[in-house]
């Protein structure tokens, strides 16, 4: 084992001890109902900001390191898409969700559509989260592998076990303590990274590289299809970002949660800029590495002493934990709180906490298994997780919030069809992380089938109680937009297909029809109330 490996392991184990202590201290905060799942709704804006920064910006930073090594400066759009998501959640989502006292998205679906929907959405949501956790843990595991020779699989297993040890004690308070500590580690990581960058390649080296490899400095070098997919995925995720909601909605008030999200959006900027700089720096110094996440430790070994490299990768470790901890805990909450309530509807809070801790152990085991199955491709797990969760729960969440006539049968059917069609499309594409069947991302297929099923299922269900509201203006706008997008898909089929935009434009058309359906088809009671109001007003 090299000196670099010794420093990384010593710092990582020392930090692990700090986290375990933090988990024990967090137990003292579990004093009343809701303390375990949403910290008793006691977070201030700074705790929310630190939590969201660790969740979104930490994982984004790791992705940008990899993307910028491969594609250059265009990786910045991934970070911009993340920032857009944060600000939309802050301004449009936090206040109404906080007023509903929401805990999980699967809980929202279940409360509206019954126990079957609750259990199914909770299970699908839960099993997607360890996939995201594995994808980010691979970044630190790559460094461990380079410096120590420990396998990637074992490194992921160490990460998973650590998450379990400190999360099971204090729940949401454990996350708050950890994310606050992580934030200061991020600062040290950036300082060390900038030192390395100015040593090699420096500004002059960057200019020389730009002249020799101009494609790395094209704003769209990663490809328009990929950039659009980033924005599309983050925009769809706005309504489904359960881990972020669970942390932000733990705030004292809607206003405090919103302020924390806005602060987190601003805090994302150094993660984006530094991620691009360090990734390109690694591309200059180590041009032929297998992956960007392997190149970064090799690059730092060339320019920095072992203690500083250890500090940098302790920051990467914090990024992995900052994403993995909320994902694992939120997934365990869906399984232990929501799916368990579907099976045991009379369960008390203490029992649900017990089930959640058991679920956390199960998801830890799943994370290790996933790491054994396919450790070398973090993007593969990300695509699979997005496809599973978003394809199943997107339409039911929209329906729970905006469409009162939706029936339980339609929701359950949409959960099944969206989930299965997304996975089938991924299978038809050979389970490749960047090459999809018919050049369409499986999440667009799954989400589209999800929406179509809930519309058709609701309108044909005999239990549905609806009437047509012809004077709904927004409905005609949605219908017109849907028709226009359908014609665009037909007329420009080849261009959209070649650029990988067919799925996105098709989904946009279906969403337009969905908006029209929500506005056209209203509950009979609402229609009668509207008529009575017009009569009363003369």
Automatic annotation (TrEMBL):
Family, as annotated: Belongs to the sodium:solute symporter (SSF) (TC 2.A.21) family.
Keywords carried by this UniProt record: Membrane, Transmembrane, Transmembrane helix, Transport
Localization: Membrane
Name of this protein: Sodium:solute symporter family protein
GO CC annotations on file: plasma membrane
Gene3D superfamilies membership: Sodium/glucose cotransporter
Claim: Protein biosynthesis is one of the keywords in the record: no
Transmembrane segments annotated in the record for this chain: 6-26, 46-64, 76-97, 118-140, 146-169, 181-203, 223-249, 261-286, 306-325, 355-373, 379-403, 410-428, 440-460, 472-495, 501-521
GO MF entries: transmembrane transporter activity
Membrane topology: Multi-pass membrane protein
InterPro entries for this protein: Na/Glc_symporter_sf, Na/solute_symporter, Sodium:Solute_Symporter
């Amino acid at each position: 084992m090299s000196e670099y490996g010794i420093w990384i392991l010593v710092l990582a184990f020392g930090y692990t001890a700090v986290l375990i202590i933090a988990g024990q201290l967090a137990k003292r905060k579990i004093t009343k109902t809701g303390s375990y799942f949403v910290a008793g709704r006691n977070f201030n804006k700074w705790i929310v900001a630190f939590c969201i920064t660790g969740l979104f910006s930490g994982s984004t930073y790791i992705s940008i390191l990899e993307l910028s090594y491969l594609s250059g400066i265009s990786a910045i759009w991934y970070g911009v898409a993340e920032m857009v998501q944060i600000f939309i959640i802050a301004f449009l989502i936090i206040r109404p969700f906080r007023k509903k006292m929401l805990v999980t998205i699967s809980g929202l679906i279940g409360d509206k559509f019954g126990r079957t929907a609750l259990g199914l959405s909770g299970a699908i949501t839960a099993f997607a989260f360890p996939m995201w956790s594995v994808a980010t843990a691979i970044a630190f595991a790559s460094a461990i592998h380079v410096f120590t020779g420990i396998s990637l699989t074992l490194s992921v297993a160490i990460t998973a076990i650590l998450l379990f040890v400190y999360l099971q004690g204090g729940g949401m308070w454990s996350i708050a303590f950890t994310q606050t500590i992580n934030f200061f580690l991020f600062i040290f990581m950036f300082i060390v990274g900038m030192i390395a960058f100015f040593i090699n390649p420096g500004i002059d080296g960057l200019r020389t590289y730009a002249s020799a490899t101009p494609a790395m400095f094209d704003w769209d070098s990663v490809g328009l299809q990929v950039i659009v997919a980033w924005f599309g995925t983050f925009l769809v995720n706005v309504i489904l970002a359960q881990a972020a909601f669970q942390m932000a909605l733990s705030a004292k008030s809607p206003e405090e949660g919103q302020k924390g999200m806005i602060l987190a959006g601003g805090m994302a900027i150094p993660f984006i800029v530094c991620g691009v700089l360090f990734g390109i720096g690694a591309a200059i110094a180590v041009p032929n590495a297998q992956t960007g996440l392997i190149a970064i430790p090799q690059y730092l070994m060339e320019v920095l002493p072992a203690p500083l490299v250890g500090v940098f990768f302790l920051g990467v470790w914090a990024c992995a934990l900052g994403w993995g901890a909320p994902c694992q805990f939120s997934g365990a909450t869906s399984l232990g709180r929501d799916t368990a309530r579907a099976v045991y509807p009379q369960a008390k809070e203490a029992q649900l906490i017990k089930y959640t801790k058991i679920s956390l152990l199960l998801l830890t085991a799943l994370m290790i298994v996933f790491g054994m199955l396919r450790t070398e491709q973090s993007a593969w797990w990300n695509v699979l997780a997005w496809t599973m969760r978003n394809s199943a729960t997107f339409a039911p969440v929209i329906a729970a919030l905006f469409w009162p006539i939706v029936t339980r049968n339609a929701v359950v059917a949409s959960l099944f069809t969206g989930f299965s069609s997304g996975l089938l499309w991924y299978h038809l594409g050979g389970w490749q992380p960047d090459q999809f069947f018919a050049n369409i991302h499986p999440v667009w297929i799954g989400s589209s089938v999800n929406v179509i099923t809930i519309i058709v299922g609701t309108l044909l269900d005999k239990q549905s109680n609806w009437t047509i509201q012809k004077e709904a203006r927004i409905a005609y706008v949605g219908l017109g937009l849907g028709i226009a997008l359908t014609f665009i898909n037909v007329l420009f089929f080849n261009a959209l297909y070649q650029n990988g935009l067919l799925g996105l434009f098709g989904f946009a058309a279906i969403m337009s029809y969905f908006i029209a359906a929500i506005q056209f088809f209203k509950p009979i009671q609402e229609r009668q109330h509207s008529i009575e109001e017009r009569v009363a007003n003369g």
